[in-house]
Structures are given as C-alpha cells and as structure tokens.
Amino acid sequence: MSDRLNRRYGTYAFLIGDLGDIGIPRIPEFRVKFHLTAALADYVASVIEQDAGGEINELGKLSETEYFSKAYVLPRGYHWETEPKLQEKEDVFLAAAQIETATDVDEETKQSELTALVDRASATGIEVTVEELTAWLAEQKPEVPSYSWVQLNDFRLFELQDRCYPWLTTDELLEQTDELPGPPRPKWEQ
Q1: pLDDT digits (tens, 9 = 90+) for 153-173
Q2: Contact 1/45 with Cβ under 8 angstroms?
Q3: Pfam families under this entry (predicted)?
Q4: What's CA 172's distance to the chain center, in Å?
Q5: Please, what is the Cα angle at 104 between 73 and 99, to 5 degrees?
Q6: Other residues' Cβ atoms within 10 Å of the Cβ of residue 32
Q7: Which residue, among 145, 144, 143, 141, has the nearest Cα to 50 in the 3D structure?
C-alpha cells in the first residue's frame, strides 16, 4: 500500500514498523513512533488486516484522539453499511454477517443489532425481516472476519464520517488506496 500511495505527487508514505528504533529502553518504542508520526503526518491510513490482535490498539488511538480528523481506516472484510450505503438487499445480508460473527457479543445484543439493521434497511426502502436474516445466516454460514465489538464500533465511527474503506482482496485494497484523499496520481498512469 505504501508503494501505491508513494506514486502520488508530493507523497511519502511509510509503515511505522519500518522506522528505526530510538534506543531508549524505558520508553515503549512503538508508542513513541506512533504518536510522532501521527502528529506530524498530513494523513494517517490504517490497514486492518486481521480480525484479532495488533491493530486494535492503534485503531483506538486514532478514533479517540486528535488524530481522528486526519485518519482513515481500511479494514479487511468489514461490511456494516450505514443507511446511505445500504443500496441492495445483499448489502443488508452482508451487514448481518458482520453482526453474526462479532466476538464478545451475546445473542440478545446480536438480535437487537439485527433489528436495528432491519430498521435502517427499511428506511432506505429495502424490505427484509430479522427472520429472513437469521435464516440466511444459518443457511449460508458466511465467512467474514470476526472483529470485536470495539473494532466494529470504531469502524462504524469512521464509516459515518466517510473515512472507512473496506476491502477483501489485495486488488480491492489497492483500489481503495486510490480513493484515499491526498495529492492526485500522475495522469500518465491513468
């Protein structure tokens, strides 16, 4: 992804993990690198590739700090869809799959979220019931990353601000990278 972003004029994109260590043992290296780069960067793009582990710490820092206004997330396999993005019945089923596979959520909460999803779908003119969604989930058993409820809520926050760019394949990640704000790509590339 950094290579793709570096093709834009005046852009220097890099991975925090590729930066050298500062060599002070009493200070957490990654925390210092994260805050320095996020504070000095014009844009922060966070690619979330796995459904558990590493990125949740950074995701929380981006969503709850002054970095939020310049941050963008690219979560793999995320599909929640807020009202403006619910355009077809398939969008509703994929969002239901995200709810179904969420970790750390009891069945009552899942049912409540499915009901809220049905209400959002109905507001956009898509007629579907919780029973239809439940039957489809039982039949299809869709494979999507099982993000924690904390991660899903952060993704939704970014989505509501039009700064969430979901992807599933590497090609889709590259396409989504091209949609991020910043300097344009060279015209000879197009």
Answers
A1: 899 999 999 999 998 788 888
A2: yes
A3: DUF8170
A4: 13
A5: 60
A6: 14
A7: 145
Q: Which of 41, 49, 39, 63 is nearest to 1 (CA)?
A: 49
Contacts of 189 (CB under 8 A, 6+ apart): 7
Residue 27: half-sphere exposure toward Cβ, Cα within 13 Å: 11
DSSP class of residue 185 equals P
Q: What is the pLDDT of residues 56-70, one digit of tens each?
A: 678 888 998 899 999
Give the Cα separation of 179 and 190 in Å (integer). 14
Q: Over the Cα atoms of the chain, what is R_g?
A: 19
Say what the pTM is.
Answer: 0.77
Terminal-residue alpha carbon distance, the chain? 18
Report the C-alpha gap between 177 and 169 in whole angstroms: 12
The answer to whether the beta carbons of residues 185 and 13 sit under 8 Å apart is no
Interatomic CA distance for residues 172 and 48, integer angstroms: 13
Q: How many CB atoms lie within 10 A of CB 13?
A: 18
> Residue written as tokens 């890099």?
14
Contact 29, 21 (CB under 8 A): yes
CA distance 109 to 99: 9
CB 166 within 8 A of CB 74: yes
What does the block give as tokens for 133?
Answer: 């969604």
